[in-house]
Design goal:
This protein is an alpha+beta fold. The protein has 7 helices and 7 strands; from the N terminus they run E-H-E-E-H-E-H-H-E-H-H-E-E-H. Helix 2 (about 40-55) crosses helix 6. The protein starts with a strand and ends in a 5-residue tail after the last helix. Bound molecules: ligand LVM2DEV6 and zinc ion. Zinc ion binds near residues 66, 102, 107, 109 and 176.
C-alpha cells in the first residue's frame, strides 16, 4: 500500500511536474494523480532525509518533483524521446518493459527549495537530459566552467541528505534517487499500472 509522503512528513514540499504541463513532454501525463506516493519504506527514508536537512539547514526543504509513477505514464515518457536510440534513451528514462523503479514506488525525483518553495539553483532544470546534469561529470563540468561551485554545493547537499536517509543516487540525473535497486523493488512490490 503506497503512502502520501506529505502524510508521513508535512514539511516535505511537493510539485508533481508530470501532473502539470511544465515537464519535458509538455503535457499533463498524470491527470488526477497530484500527490507524491511511495512505498512506506521509501517514504520513511524520505522523512529521514528531510529530518537530516532540517537539523543542518532549517531554512531549506525537500521539494519532490516525482515519486510513484504508473507504468502507463512511463510509456508516455519513453515514447517522448524518439530522437534517442533505445540504448541511449534508457540513460534518461527507464524502459517501461523493464520497469522504472518509480513504477514500484521506490524512487523519487526532487530538489532543494527555500521554505516558501523556491527551488535552489542546481545548474540545470529538472529532466535536463545531458552531461551537465550527470553527477558523474560534475568535477569535469566545474573545471570547464559549466557548473558553479554554488550549484555543485547545492547538489552535494541534496545528495548528502538523501544518502543520510538511505537513498542511492544515479550517474546521469542529479534529481533521481532510489530507495531500492530495481531487482529488490521487483522482488518486494507490484508495479503500479
Ligand atoms: C524521466 C526521469 N525523471 C526519470 O525518472 N528517469 C529514470 C531513469 C526513470 O525513468 O526511472
Ligand atoms: Zn526519477
Amino acid at each position: 500500500q503506497l503512502v502520501d509522503v506529505q502524510k508521513i512528513d508535512p514539511g516535505i514540499l511537493v510539485e508533481l511536474k508530470y501532473s502539470t504541463t511544465d515537464n519535458f513532454v509538455k503535457q499533463d501525463v498524470y491527470g488526477n494523480l497530484t500527490k507524491a506516493y511511495l512505498q512506506p519504506m521509501a517514504a520513511n527514508k524520505l522523512a529521514k532525509a528531510s529530518r537530516w536537512l532540517q537539523t543542518r539547514r532549517p531554512d531549506l526543504r525537500l521539494l519532490v518533483y516525482d515519486a510513484a509513477r504508473p507504468r502507463s505514464a512511463q510509456v508516455k515518457l519513453w515514447n517522448a524521446l524518439p530522437q534517442y536510440t533505445e540504448r541511449h534513451r534508457r540513460t534518461y528514462v527507464a524502459d517501461p518493459r523493464e520497469g522504472s523503479i518509480h513504477s514500484y514506488g521506490c524512487a523519487v525525483d526532487l530538489t532543494l527549495a527555500t521554505a516558501n518553495g523556491k527551488a535552489l539553483d542546481m545548474g540545470t532544470p529538472y529532466d535536463f537530459f545531458g552531461p551537465k546534469a550527470y553527477p558523474k561529470a560534475e568535477a569535469q563540468m566545474l573545471k570547464a566552467g559549466q557548473l558553479t561551485k554554488e550549484q555543485l554545493a547545492n547538489r552535494q547537499l541534496l545528495r548528502q541528505a538523501m544518502q543520510a536517509g538511505g537513498f542511492t543516487p544515479i550517474a546521469y540525473e542529479w534529481w533521481h534517487f532510489n530507495a531500492l535497486s530495481r531487482r529488490e523493488a521487483k522482488q518486494r512490490f507490484k508495479v503500479v499500472e
